[in-house]
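User: I'm putting together a teaching handout on how multi-component assemblies are represented. Below are the sequence lines for each component of a complex, exactly as they appear in our records. Could you produce the 3D structure of the whole assembly as structure tokens, so the students can see both representations side by side? Please keep the chain order the same as the input.
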Amino acid sequence: MNTLPKLIFELSREGKVGCGLNEADVPAEPAIDAALLRGTPADLPQVSEVEIVRHYMALAKLNYSVDAGFYPLGSCTMKYNPKINEKLAAADDLQAHPYAPHDLVQGNLEIMARLEEWLVKLTGLAGFTLAPAAGAHGEFTGMLIVRKHLQEKGDARKVVLIPDSAHGTNPASAHFAGYEVKEIPSNSRGIIGLEDLRAHLTPDVAALMMTNPNTLGIFESDIAAIAEALHANGSLLYMDGANLNALLGVVRPGDLGVDVMHLNLHKTFATPHGGGGPGSGPVGVAARLLPHLPVPRIRKKGDTFEVVYDDPRSIGRVKNFYGQFLVMVRALAYLMALGRENVMRVAEDAVLNANYIRKRLEGKLDLPYKAPTLHEVVFSDDGLPVKTLDIAKRLLDFGFHPFTIYFPLIVHGAMMIEPTESESKETLDEFVAVMEVILGEARENPDLLRQAPTRTPVRRLDETLAARKPVLRWRKGGDT
Amino acid sequence: MRYLPLTDAEREEMRKVIGVSEVKELFSCIPSGKCHFPLGQLPAALSEPELVAAFKELAGKNAFSGRLSFLGAGAYDHFIPEVVSYLSGKGEFLTPYTPYQPEVSQGSLQAIFEYQTMMAMLTGLDVANASLYDGATAAAEAVLLAVRRSGRSRVLLASTLHPEYAAVIRTYVQNLPIELRTVAVEEESGRVDGGDLRSRLDDSVAAFVFQSPNFLGVVEDGGSIAAAVHERKAYAVQVVAEAMSLAYLASPGECGVDMAVGEAQSFGLSLGFGGPYLGFMAVREEFMRQIPGRLVGQTRDLDGKRGYVLTLSTREQHIKREKATSNICSNEAWCALRAGMYLAVMGKAGLARAARACHLNAAYFVRSAAGMKNIRVVYARNFYNEVLIEVKKGSAAGLAAALKKKGILAGVPLSWFEAGRKDRLLLAFSEVHDRAAIDRLLAAIGEAS
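Assistant: Of course. Below is the structure of the complete assembly, with chains in the same order as your input.
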């Protein structure tokens, strides 16, 4: 516990070898000017295979993961990642080169077409692109589609409205699509009120970006009326689908008037987060926006899948090749395993789990928004003798990953808890019991929390030092 | 259902605690008039064996396996040591979230810190970020960074940039006040036309983005390009679509380039039909505080112990919102971790050997093809591992189709890309090929005439 693994560079010894590759068996006759060659080889580590295995095994032990335990990160939907999906995605027969001739990759094209079909049915939208690499990439793609549509109608407009509870990627994505962002406040119920929206709905509004359920876990119940108001103004409704897990099999965004939305395969569709990625952020659109989807598009002609590379009305290409194909494979496998019998059960259990936690912790923690919540619940640290950060860090000592903290920004000291449907009642009860212990400690011995964690491989880390004097790489003979 | 642990009895107990008799009541906030979900249109649930069988059937509709492939053009077949797959497949690496809680994420954080170091070493630059989506979006982010940093609005793109990278850049900037101009290729050498570059460089130019080895397979003279670009106080941005080349060719840093961006799929990621791959960005120190994407930095814990955290996050969207340097949030962390593992396994000597083998195999092909009647190697010197050939009669697609019948995927016809020439085929060589494989390719080309 007290010794952290050395850096791989610190294990390096001149002459050690980790790989078993031979020299090329062709004559060693280069056909390149010496001046274009590297002067000295990159000083990569020299470590044997067994030492590499032990190095990474030691690192693995320092990580918390969904496989290890409860991960209630709000709006991140840290559900279980089925093991069979890893095996399916690793199959040799799927690992085609992206420029392999289409007649040799019909299976892969069908996988993408089938996933698109599932997403269409789950959302009630007309079509999807699977190209975007992550949620934020999907948002950007979606806003480009909005802009293209409005441009074709003769006026791209200037403004995108975004509620104050939105994830930071929303304003950033709108900005890179060339829009000015105007924030609209959530009302006392924690949602966008129709009247507030109307007050902001000027003729230069291109779209509203709405997360639904929003980051408080509350369903935007005025959504249909909001969509109507937007459409009457010539504006579009963009829905951030980060929280779609709550709606699976219950309601389709397309039926609520949503024009464009992105999904997160690495959230709702159980593909592993990989410590921060890869994700995949498909974007779905209403029928009138279909021509603007990015290329390439997959189409079925007779029994054959074809790929369309250029479409004059498309926004263009957002990523090379087809997107995060192996993530799509896992998502499709997840959906095929669920089937029509279980799609709705996912949302129901997720919402049941969240409401159970809410009920068990209500009264012990401040609940700033009392409206019914769906898949997640947000408490605040108001009235507590310690800060949210201290509670989060103390949870680590009890072997739980903390919830999302200090987000959404509209809640003071936010604790955003999303249990997902993957958790058993026993786990939720244990979590609640630990929270009760911690809240007791907060009253009796708040310093214990401020010092936490003490049982983790490292204690609180100095983030100010990291930012003030950035050390972003190892250097030989440098500070260790 | 096997992924759902609640029992019906527990569900009922939980509903009682919450105070609802039916789970539907928890959804009463959703206007019921809108809730007509046609679940019946969805396929029925599959058991695990049924799922395996279904995917076997889907995979069975692919027919590329077992063919000798020389496809490249931005995605490369390299040998992946088993250790990489074994270690990266561990749930401790595969199933965590972004390391927001560093005390329980030191494994991911240290691994990414090591990856950043290796990429900085390979590119010869000061700082590498924790990853971007892929080579094309990394190139687009470099354009945005150069514009932001310079305060200038025009960006020059080499015409020999991967067409999909150029397309993604165009998509990214379409609504921003950024003007793109193309710099011509010198047909004879396959390199950037230095005269055209100089004539287009002026005080409005933020950067020149060139690829090396370029899309025609030719290695650019990065030093001369950087010098010309710096004369007008613009930035030289090198795109590297084949990261393996970094271990053989003069590094971007050695050439004086300011930023290197590109695709590191070659470092331990399977072809995977195009993704997920690994975008990288490495820069000189002056860009450090404006670089897009995540960065892992070293620091100390309360006891003075060395540890790692995500740092310089005031650049990022969750702090700066619309003023962030990029909208990126999820990145390709697991791919970067895998690349770090791959580079550790290959090591200093092993990577250099593999990188050299890629070139030597390509050089062997070029020498052997010199006397062939039906094709001509367009650039017979100063390539790395990709070779452009011209088909003397018929089309490149025709030649590729003829070789496909013999079980060989000979290369990517440039006609695959918009405005690509119909008589040209791009072949890629790597350490997975041996002399016998290349001889088989040569023989098949010879017979195709």
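A couple of points students might notice: Chain B touches chain A through 211 residues (CB under 8 Å). The CA atoms of residues 92 and 369 of chain B lie 49 Å apart.
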